[in-house]
Design goal:
alpha+beta; four-stranded antiparallel β-sheet; about 130 residues; FolB_dom; GTP Cyclohydrolase I, domain 2; folate biosynthesis; Dihydroneopterin_aldolase
Length: about 130
């Protein structure tokens, strides 16, 4: 399921796409020893208390800051070796749910330089606040 804004439900969509980092990710010896290019995507369903009929104050403090989202994802991805792309995606997703305004998160982790004859390999995970 794709995260979509939904005014009636009071949900906005916040995203970071194409965040490229150098991370140690994978099960092979060379992946443990040397960072590789990893592309991250984060999609958030965020509570919008002003939807559907109001505008809300023009203040950064009232929204989920996509700069902070990118920095958190970058920090987690670069913190040390992770064997599985699934584990990395789950760690990032759970960190996003630390913000009470986030009700659902999808995280993609792509490794574009792994297989010669494909553009990218990877995984997408979704986590939801209960």
């Amino acid at each position: 399921m794709t995260i979509q804004p939904d005014a009636a439900a009071g949900i906005r969509h916040v995203f970071v796409r194409g965040l490229t980092v150098q991370a140690r990710l994978g099960v092979h010896a060379h992946e443990k020893a040397q960072p590789q290019r990893v592309i991250l995507g984060v999609d958030l369903a965020v509570r919008d208390p002003y939807a559907p009929a109001a505008e809300g104050p023009d203040e950064l403090s009232r929204v989920v800051d996509y700069g902070a989202v990118a920095e958190t994802a970058r920090r987690i991805a670069c913190a040390g070796h992770v064997r599985l792309a699934e584990t990395l995606a789950e760690r990032i997703a759970l960190a996003m749910l630390d913000d009470d305004r986030v009700v659902r998160v999808r995280v993609s982790v792509e490794k574009p330089d792994v297989l010669r004859d494909v553009t990218s390999v990877g995984v997408v995970v979704e986590r939801t606040r209960f």
